[in-house]
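In this supplementary section we document a worked example of the pipeline. Step one takes a protein sequence of length 230 as its only input; no multiple sequence alignment statistics are reported here. Step two produces a three-dimensional model, which step three serialises into structure tokens for compact storage. The input and output of this example are shown verbatim.
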Amino acid sequence: MTPPGLVPPEAVTGPNDVPSSSPLFARGGHNACQRARRDDLLAATRGDAVEATSIQALVRLRDALDLHGADASLVSALDELMHTGGSTRQTWRHGAAPGLPKVEPLPPRSLFAVALDNAVEGCVRETFGALVSRHQALHARDGGVRAFMARVAEDETRHAELFWKVDHWAQARLSAGERDVLRLAKQRASEALRAEVAEPVSPVFVSEAGLPPPEVAVALVDTLARELWA
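The serialised model returned by step three reads:
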């Protein structure tokens, strides 16, 4: 049961969903309330729905790579990541790692289409997500959130590393023109991401959850754009 006055985690989708009376703004209190408060913080940054979507994307990527004859080690690494690296957030919230979600099969896609999706969602957005998790692990005021986000950062760093391995494997099998499109897609995705992170963030998520304020988030995107996405 949600303690009185606490926003249920599933109802928190953004800063505007948390009223000023929420224990999210309080310090101290009963352990159960502190745990629920942390749940709110974590749900507000990236909740179960996003986690499940991430696992579904891994399943579909694994199947697509298998279809296109990817190295067995690459397919196996995706398999392992789905079972061990995608459940940290849900384990925190539910007390046990859930099974893999049911994933509806997609029509077969070309290797270029798979690589393009991986470039935008994996190499750009997941790489940035891993960096944000690391920032939260260092800067969240709440010690429980810091410890938890350190574990999440490890998971998401492994995700990002694997997406880059997929990128390198796929690019070796694409034409020069297709590789140019991938590079342009990463640049455009980074520009869109830069605009998104420049939007204001509720101060409570910056202080309590350790999310980077807009100026820091923009600087992180700019650094990644120069070093990885150019």
